[in-house]
Amino acid sequence: MKYEGKVIKYNDNVDTDVIIPARYLNTSDHKELASHCMEDLDKTFVSRVKDGDIIVAGYNFGCGSSREHAPIAIKASGISIVIAKSFARIFYRNAINIGLAIVECPEAVDGAGEGDIIQADMDKGIIRNLTTGKEFKTQPFPEFIQKIIENGGLMKSAEKGII
After folding, report:
1. Residues 46, 77: contact at Cβ < 8 Å?
2. Staple partner for 70: which of 19, 84, 141, 148, CB 3.0–4.6 Å?
3. CA-CA distances (angstroms) from residue 152 to 66, 76, 126, 147?
4. Which long-range contacts (CB under 8 A, 24 or more apart) does 103-111 make?
5. How far apart are alpha carbons 93 and 68 in whole angstroms?
6. CB of 136 within 8 A of CB of 105?
7. What global pTM score does this model have?
8. CA distances for 126 relative to 45, 84, 107, angstroms
9. Residue 49 near residue 5, CB atoms below 8 Å
């Protein structure tokens, strides 16, 4: 699994309430959720995010509530992968469950700036900052997680009899 995109960078403790504010939880429409993604943290996110872009963030990304709406909003906005120093446990599991690629790599976070172009090869566990030429190692995705992400999430994978 390979991803390449422009970095949109955030700091530590980005919680689910700013990823998708509670006032929008009355919908399950993915496009509607995406249209409000990050708006309480970054009013420009929705207007500048492009398919394939990469969120790079600090520690404890996705802390707060256990709502699945947060990773759904991120994925539906076009983000291909989230690279963070660490994730809240429930967000991590929810992201995998809905097919959003996420990986912890503190060195890559420290080595990336807003607007840099990042390439992440999750088969090999290599993250390259194409803007700076720096390369970082992380754990490759296990095969079963690759299958879940490739199939659009846990439930879709189960429906296809893949897991």
Report:
1. yes
2. 19
3. 20, 11, 22, 9
4. 103/127, 103/138, 103/139, 103/141, 104/138, 105/136, 105/137, 105/138, 107/136, 108/56, 108/83, 108/136, 108/138, 109/56, 109/57, 109/58, 109/83, 109/84, 109/85, 111/136
5. 9
6. yes
7. 0.94
8. 26, 14, 11
9. no
The SS3 assignment for 101 reads: strand
Name the pairing type of β-strands 54-57 and 101-104.
Answer: unpaired
17 three-class SS: helix
Per-residue pLDDT of the chain (163 residues; tens, 9 = 90+): 999 999 999 999 999 999 999 999 998 899 999 999 999 999 999 999 999 999 999 999 999 988 899 999 999 999 999 999 999 999 999 999 999 999 999 999 999 999 999 999 999 999 999 999 999 999 998 898 989 999 988 877 677 776 6
3-state DSSP assignment of residue 69: helix
Please report the DSSP string for 73-97 in residue order.
HHHHHT--EEEES-B-HHHHHHHHH
- Pairwise CA distance, residues 155 & 163, whole Å: 9
